[in-house]
Write a structure and sequence with these properties.
The structure is a single chain. This protein has 2 helices and 14 strands. It has helices at about 135-145, 165-174; strands at about 1-5, 10-15, 25, 30-40, 45-50, 55-60, 65-70, 75-80, 90, 95-105, 110-115, 120, 120-125, 150-155. The strands form 3 sheets. A 6-stranded parallel beta sheet has the order 1-3-5-7-9-11, with no helix packed on it. Helix 1 (about 135-145) packs parallel to helix 2 (about 165-174).
């Protein structure tokens, strides 16, 4: 799907096993919601333009990036990207807000936000099993809390190790 022009809306779309880019949007003020992309071989959603709003999106098993936005003022909420072979979400532009995002089992960067005034509200780290990388999670949570970002850890506790109780306590504090 390719859309160009300002103030475009893409809603209620379900793409499965698409070739190339799933949804490509160029223009300012685009609104994308209630979208599912499964098993595509390119980027799921690629947007060039300012003031993009994306919500209610579920991307899974995609061979390319999940969502890529190049523009100022992007707002992303209620987004799930799993099993992507590229970066789950990449936003380049000033004054972007990212909230309500669930990223799991992606092989590239999870979240890549570049630009002045970018805002990330919260981070939840979940499985596989996040305690496998407890040093990384501890450092991530420390930096997130220093930046005023709420953190949460979702673990089954299967890899609990008494030697790591100090690190786990630190994650609770951060």
């Amino acid at each position: 799907i390719s859309v160009s022009g300002d103030n475009s809306t893409v809603s209620g779309v379900n793409l499965t096993d698409n070739e190339g880019t799933g949804i490509e949007v160029s223009g300012s003020g685009a609104k994308l919601d209630n979208i599912t992309v499964t098993g595509g071989d390119g980027p799921a959603i690629d947007v060039i333009g300012d003031d993009t709003e994306i919500s209610g999106v579920d991307i899974s098993g995609n061979d390319g990036n999940g969502i890529t936005i190049d523009g100022n003022g992007a707002k992303l909420d209620d987004i799930s990207v799993s099993g992507s072979n590229g970066t789950a979400i990449s936003v380049s532009g000033d004054n972007s807000t990212v909230s309500g995002v669930n990223l799991t089992d992606n092989s590239g960067a999870g979240l890549d936000v570049k630009g002045d005034g970018a805002k990330l509200d919260n981070i939840t780290v979940t499985g596989g099993e996040p305690l496998v990388q407890i040093d990384f999670v501890t450092e991530l949570f420390k930096k997130a809390r220093e930046a005023g970002i709420h953190t949460a850890l979702d673990t089954s506790g299967l890899l609990f190790n008494r030697a790591n109780t100090t690190k786990i306590d630190m994650n609770v504090l951060y």
